[in-house]
Amino acid sequence: MTDVQDSAPVRYPFSAVVGQEQLKLALVLSAISPGIGGVLIRGEKGTAKSTIVRGLGPLIGGDDRSGRVVELPIGATEDRVIGSLDLTSVLRDGRAEFTPGLLARAHRGVLYIDEVNLLADHLVDVLLDAAASGRVTIERDGVSHTQEADFVLVGTMNPEEGELRPQLLDRFGLAVDVAAGKDLDERVEVIRRRMAFDADPDGFAAEYLETEHELAQRIHAAREAVSGVEIPTRELRRIAGICAHLDVDGLRGDIVVARTAAAHAAWRGAPTVDEEDVRAAVELALPHRRRRNPFDESGLSNDQLDDAMSAGQDAAGPGSPDSPDDDPTPPEGGPGGGAPEPGESSESSGASEEANTHEDSEPGSQRAPGPAFGAAPTPTGRRVRALRVTGVGDGDPGRRSKARSRRGHTTHAVDFADGRPVHLFATVLAAAGRAPQSSVRIAAPDLRAAERIGQESNLVVFVVDLSGSMTARRRLTAVAELCVEMLRDSYTRRDRVAVVVARGGTATLAVPPTKSVDIAVRRLAEIRTGGRTPLAEGLTLAGDVVERCRRTEPNRRPLVVVLTDGRATSGRDAPARARLAASAIRRRGIESVVVDCEQGLVRLGLAADLASHLGAELLTMDELSATALTRGAA
């Protein structure tokens, strides 16, 4: 945990950050009106996300408590986050003393979570409870304790490392996508300032001391004034019309936009909210709230924003008595006619057209002649069967396979160790067994921990056969839909996924291991189809991907999913080489599943032969799209 205190290292001044104006505005508005709900910052590495957040604390601190920025590590234990009983005091003195956690320490300040999308599910649940109630309650082993935990939630994330749970995403009032600036002079200034700060942090901070003081005073004045800002009925109607136009779920979005617009008006010193404030609020508060599929693009384009503002203008109607100065003219670029609907894409050009390629393409061709693989034309709404790795693992929290966990159902007692929950019943039994003739007194050697079984995420490597035999006979659309549904399933289970494509003369790693499944879908959609079937090369590459990941994440268990009709046609000995590659994967202890994509009246059954060499379960596409299936009870 890191708090912003006088004794802490010098922080890079908030006002010294070059660019990122929208992000700085979002943080300032959240500081002015904490009821907005905080800020989610999405962007690539090296875009000053953490620097800006850490610089916010000194600007909002009227005292130590309100200016505090508390960092919540993604690897923190639940006891560290919500607080816990001091076990030493219980055993030594018989007193139930409570040690506050990070949530309570962030009260009236900022709770900052770097890489919030990687936060364990059990911590997300705790965070959601605290964010909703403004307090944290601990009820454990007959003891109940409640502490205030009203904080501004700020999270940063790199979308390429995985998405955020929808429930937690909805708790962030504002969301900002950040990227490195393209302007050459701006990039040069970033370098210059950073090097100056590294050379002399105190001297650099002193240069911005007056600017920081003025900014802090302005934030303080806006915080004092925001409760008195008026929101005319006309602007409330505008907000409601915009939210309805963008298909925003529920009413939280409407309320957050109104609060943000009021904060923006206070920030610019205006007593009343107008269209300018609403537009700024919509741009920050609604992009992550629009109803969309998990793989649709986030954000709100200028055209979409203009279109939404036009819809809001229609809802607001002509000027009314409570807002006589409102301009009834639609915003510039208003109803542009032709702005795409939110989440609209190119309708999967490759997936819907008839594939007419053949297997007589050149074996060495790097660009198969067929159409783009594309994405499923429309979401099917189907749920694929839950493929699980057998046994019990120790991987990161997720929702696919069984794993030992701090959260889950208790199976038995084990030796006590830091970080494990105490198994109270087993601890008492151990104490009773040590001194059966006297009253039971628990000592440190009696402590037992609870072994709990939860769920983990896995590395799922998809090997997708996109050769000519797979794309013929109207099969491409069905395979595309199935791939997207399986990737969607991996998204909900928090897996790391990779996609190996076999077509033409070789196999390629189309998507390196990533937690961002939307990136996987987009890259897969661009792959060309057709040509011969280098099945052996695809399996070999999949095995290599697994081995590389094992070196960096040894606890993440792999699952290889092969979508093919089983025809290996890349060379005369292709079938034999495919069987050898399959056997090699089996010897490495890599679990796998073969999805038989063969269709039609005449079937060769080649996928079944491949599955036998892999030691894999064989499923048809129809079977995979049925209800949940658990492989191999542990």
From TrEMBL:
It comes from the Bacteria. Residues 290-411 are annotated as: Disordered. Residues 400-410 have a biased composition (Basic residues). Residues 341-354, 368-381 have a biased composition (Low complexity). Belongs to the Mg-chelatase subunits D/I family. Pfam families: AAA_5, AAA_lid_2, VWA_2. PROSITE patterns: VWFA. Residues 459-595 form the VWFA domain. One of its GO terms (molecular function) is ATP hydrolysis activity. This is VWFA domain-containing protein. InterPro entries: AAA+_ATPase (IPR003593), ATPase_dyneun-rel_AAA (IPR011704), BchD/ChlD_VWA (IPR041702), ChlI/MoxR_AAA_lid (IPR041628), Mg-chelatase_DI-like (IPR052989), P-loop_NTPase (IPR027417), VWF_A (IPR002035), vWFA_dom_sf (IPR036465).
